[in-house]
Amino acid sequence: MRIAMIGTGYVGLVSGACFADFGHEVTCVDKDESKIAALKRGEIPIFEPGLDALVAANVKARRLDFTTDLSRPVAEAEAVFIAVGTPSRRGDGHADLSYVYAAAREIAKSLSGFTIVVTKSTVPVGTGDEVERIIRETNPNADVVVASNPEFLREGAAIRDFKFPDRIVIGTADERGHKVMSDIYRPLSLNQAPLMFTARRTAEMIKYAANAFLATKITFINEIADLSEKVGANVQEVARGIGLDNRIGTKFLHAGPGFGGSCFPKDTRALIKIAQDNDVQLRIVEAVLAVNDNRKRAMARKVSHALGGALRGKTVAVLGLTFKPDTDDMREAPSIPLVTGLLDMGAKVRAYDPAGMEQARHELPTIEYCDDPYTCARGADALVIVTEWVQFRALDLDRLKQVMAQPVMVDLRNVYRPEDLAAAGFVYESVGRTSSQE
Fold it and tell me: Which of 264, 313, 379, 427 has a CB 3.0–4.6 Å from the CB of 215, allowing a cystine?
């Protein structure tokens, strides 16, 4: 089956490469000429484990190609996916749909024969209605069905998530659209991945509701972590104790510095705005967003506490800058407000990240970047673990103690056990567990 994927960002490139790997013929389209040129040279613009090899294999097999001109791919396609960005709109937090609507207008001009146009981008409820209106207004003769097919990909595990999904949500009531989408995803039938067909608006709502719920779980356990610190409980054991209840589940119950990334902050804000526009208050989601924003900045105070309440003139080493491991994504990363807070308190900051330093330099241009964890820690008064990269999970504690000015570690991801750090002679702060100073 021929597929046109409009947009070569995270969702578009991963989805296009995976569809090609299923055996479909996929053309990925993007207006950015430099990005398309780089992709044709085999250069991947994002860091995602396994994506470079997947793209290369399918380009070599002639199932995947790239272009800046959508007219031919759209005219030849049986399915056209819109996978352009929907960033938060300046000023009000709504999802900016200008790229989606512009893509719909361009697609409409090139449609030929029956085609299903699918919104893969995360879009507010009712966006599919407007996309359909735009297409029919631009090309009244188009034989088209507009569907919703939200993505549920985790950065760092996107290829596996695409090929072994919990579910595939498809929003369309049209029989022809139902058949085309079933054919596209048929290769996943061996994995017994459930295809959930529903109304278009319901599919759009499912995406936002899922992200808001997961963000709520993260924020809940973070607040429980704060209380655990005060009363002498261990939040990791609390999380395990409640997570073993099948009604709750173990995932997204890891206390830390707050959620970030391209989805949860943006989508919770957009969901709140959708609700307000419909005279509904989502008080829980509003609280989730407010608590998370406050938490990121509060992590700088945790570092200050570990150093006796004063940071001026101190050097802080930060390990991990991206919002999660196995990605170079710095969008809404907790490291940004943390580092900004440290600088505001007068600290000098050094940082190291295995993949995200190039992106981080745009967000945090005034700090010092280092080549490895130990260079970063040299002469530091405190070491802060912000992102739980595997490279940081077995650090040589004796070596760290030798190179640091003070043996102080603030572990915002609870990577280490307090008793191990105490035995190594460190002052140790973590999240939701009793401090080694107390």
Answer: 264
